[in-house]
Amino acid sequence: MDEPRLLGKIFELGLTYDQIRDRDLELTRLFRVTGTPTVIILDANGEVAYKSHEAPQSWKAYL
Q1: Concatenated DSSP letters for the chain?
Q2: For residue 56, is the peptide bond before it cis, meaning its omega torsion is within 30 degrees of 0?
Q3: Which one of 1, 3, 19, 25 is at 20 to 30 Å from 11 when CA atoms are compared?
Q4: CA-to-CA distance for 5 and 51, rounded, in angstroms?
């Protein structure tokens, strides 16, 4: 998907969290991503606190 269409879709869906395009697959390999979308939440120490193909039912524990 080209950049303008992607940004339009992000705006249309009202997504307010960071979106990352991993064109060189560096993050895909690092976090062992097996599909998209993948939601990864890092804790204050940079460790993976949550990883799934769906957003958590409650974000409260990660804020």
Answers
A1: --HHHHHHHHHHHT--S-----TT-HHHHHTT--SSS-EEEE-TTS-EEEEESS--S-SGGG-
A2: no
A3: 25
A4: 26
Task: Give residue limits of the domains in the chain.
Answer: 19-62
Query: pTM of the prediction?
Result: 0.65
Distance, CA of 41 to CA of 27 (rounded, Å): 13
Sign of the Cα torsion 47, 49, 54, 55 reads negative
Question: Could you tell me which residues are beta bridge partners of residue 51?
Answer: 40
